[in-house]
């Protein structure tokens, strides 16, 4: 990413939220910001509900993140269940880059409280991803996904949502140096649409009628939001033995 400054001053022995890493993490990286989204994003921060508990800060964001898997996300009917209702089934619903934090459940990141808590990067040696491990093939598997404009909230139709209704702004996972920037695909809309429904921890762009996807071989491809659910799942999953006919 040619971010030698941030790399040089980042303390990998500390959690990303540690004060020692503030200067490194508060760098705006234009490469990971969508040109159609706001380049500078100021939003409220704080855990309280009153204005005295809130402050306006800049979020040093990324619009491109990994997606762990297709799930039901504790919804009554989530994305996976809806896909199965549409006749789309897989034995493995994982994406290419599953969250490293899954390997640290015995030593969880303790946010904001323990500055020496285990960093998410310490788990990279647990089930690492390599080109040969992606059994569905790098050219056929999505690796990074758009989740544009966080921490601002956008709804179906690419319209700004009410920041004061649940989920409230700021939406989680906006920052590039953040262990929750990745997400699980759990929602759908219009019966068979699995992206561009909302940017609340979901695949979402401000591009007309579709999203860009970075594949494992380094290519970027645009797919329309009305693409076949089965074709979408085949490209999303990395280990399901469901390669599509052509990249």
Blueprint (SSEs and pairs):
Elements: H1 4-9, H2 22-25, E1 41-45, E2 55-59, E3 64-65, E4 67-70, H3 79-85, E5 142-146, E6 154-155, E7 159-160, E8 183-185, E9 210-215, E10 220-224, H4 229-236
Parallel strand pairs: 4-8
Antiparallel strand pairs: 1-2, 3-5, 5-9, 6-7, 9-10
Structure summarized in a few sentences:
With 247 residues, the protein is of the alpha+beta class. It is built from four helices and ten strands.
Overall average residue pLDDT: 85
Give helix and strand order, one letter per element, not per position: HHEEEEHEEEEEEH
Radius of gyration: 18 Å
Helix content: 10-25%
End-to-end span in angstroms?
26 Å
Query: Count of DSSP E strands?
Result: 10
In total, how many domains does the architecture comprise?
1
Alpha plus pi helix count: 4
Sketch the major β-sheet. Answer: 4 strands, antiparallel
Query: Any low-confidence stretches, pLDDT <50, length ≥5?
Result: 102-124
Q: Order of strands in the sheet with the most strands?
A: 3-5-9-10
Shape: globular
The class by helix and strand makeup works out as alpha+beta
* Residue share in β-strands: 15-25%
Structure characterization notes:
It is a single chain. The protein is an alpha+beta fold and 247 residues long. The chain has one domain. The protein is built from 4 helices and 10 strands. The protein has a 4-stranded antiparallel β-sheet with strand order 3-5-9-10, with no helix packed on it. The radius of gyration is 18 Å and the shape is globular. The two termini are 26 Å apart.
Please name the defining characteristics of this protein.
4-stranded antiparallel sheet; globular; alpha+beta; 247 residues; two-stranded antiparallel sheet
């Amino acid at each position: 990413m040619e971010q030698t400054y941030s790399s040089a001053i980042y303390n990998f022995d500390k959690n990303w939220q540690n004060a020692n890493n503030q200067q490194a993490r508060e760098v705006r990286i234009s490469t990971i910001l969508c040109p159609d989204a706001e380049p500078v994003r100021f939003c409220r921060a704080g855990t309280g509900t009153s204005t005295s508990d809130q402050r306006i800060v800049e979020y040093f964001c990324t619009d491109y993140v990994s997606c762990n898997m297709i799930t039901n996300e504790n919804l009554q009917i989530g994305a996976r269940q809806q896909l199965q209702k549409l006749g789309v089934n897989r034995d493995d619903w994982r994406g290419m880059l599953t969250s490293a934090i899954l390997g640290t459940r015995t030593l969880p990141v303790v946010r904001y409280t323990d500055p020496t808590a285990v960093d998410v990067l310490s788990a990279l040696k647990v089930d690492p991803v390599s080109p040969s491990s992606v059994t569905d093939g790098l050219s056929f598997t999505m690796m990074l996904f758009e989740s544009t404009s966080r921490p601002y909230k956008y709804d179906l139709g690419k319209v700004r949502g009410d920041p004061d209704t649940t989920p409230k702004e700021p939406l989680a996972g906006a920052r590039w140096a953040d262990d929750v920037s990745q997400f699980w695909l759990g929602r759908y809309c219009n019966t068979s649409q699995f992206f561009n429904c909302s940017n609340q921890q979901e695949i979402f762009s401000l591009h007309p009628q579709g999203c860009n996807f970075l594949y494992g071989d380094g290519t970027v491809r645009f797919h329309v939001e009305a693409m076949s659910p089965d074709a979408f799942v085949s490209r999303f999953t990395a280990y399901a033995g469901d390669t599509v006919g052509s990249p």
